[in-house]
Amino acid sequence: MASNDPIFTPELVKIIKIFGLASILMVLALSFFNTKRANNTGEDHTFRMSDSARLYFLNLKAIEYNREVRLDAGMTLFRHQDINAFDNSPFVNLILILNPVQDESYLYLEPVNLEWPIEIELQNDSGTETFILDDGNKFQHFENIQKLIPYIESDSQFFIFDQGQKIPLWEKEVEKEGLKRILEDYFRILES
C-alpha cells in the first residue's frame, strides 16, 4: 500500500535548491578560471611555439640575427650578429632554430672548427667546472644549454679545449649580452 506522505517535503526542496544552486555556481565559476587543459594527445610540447610568439620574433627581434634558410630541413637558423667566430679559430656558436613545419623552436650549440664532443670549462667566483657536451638530438642540445644557462647569467668566464689548448670563449661583453638575448628570445618564443 502506497503511503500518502510526500517525498519532496518543503525542507528537502529547500536543501536541494541550496546545494543544487551552489553546485551550479561553483561549476560555472571554475570553468571561467580554468586555463590549464588536459593534454591527451600524447604530443611533447617542450619545443612548441605559438604563432603569435613566432611572429613577434620574426617582426621585432629577428633583425638582430643573421638568417640562414635551410630548405633541405625546412628550418631557419638564426645566429646573433654580436656572436661571431673569427677566421679559423675554434669557436662555439649558439643558434636559435625555427621549425615552422612542426611549430617548434630549438637551440643548438654549433662547433666552429671543432669536433664533438666539446669540452667547456667555466670559471667564476665559486671555482672551476668542466662540461663535456655531446652532439645529439634536440633534447640533448637543450639539456646541454640548460647546464650552461646559470653560468651565462652569472657572467662566468668560458673556455674551450682544442687539441689540448685552452681557448677563451665568449670573452667580450657584447658576446655575453648576445647570448643572454638569444636565451631571452628563445624562452619568449616558447612562452615559458
Structural class: alpha+beta
In the sheet with the most strands, the strands line up as 1-2-3-4
Q: Measure the end-to-end span.
A: 68 Å
Taken from the alpha-carbon principal axes, the silhouette is elongated
Oligomeric organization of the protein chains: single chain
Largest sheet: 4 strands, antiparallel
For the record, the count of structural domains works out to 1
Layout of helices and strands:
Blueprint: H1 10-32, H2 51-61, E1 65-70, E2 75-80, E3 91-99, E4 104-112, E5 118-124, E6 127-133, H3 138-153, E7 157-162, E8 165-169, H4 173-189
Antiparallel strand pairs: 1-2, 2-3, 3-4, 5-6, 5-7, 7-8
Keywords: Membrane, Transmembrane, Transmembrane helix
Describe this structure in words.
By secondary structure, the chain is an alpha+beta fold. It has one domain. It contains four helices and eight strands. The strands form two sheets. A four-stranded antiparallel β-sheet has the order 1-2-3-4. A four-stranded antiparallel β-sheet has the order 6-5-7-8, with helices on one face. Strand 7 and strand 8 form a beta hairpin. The model has no long low-confidence stretch (mean pLDDT 83).
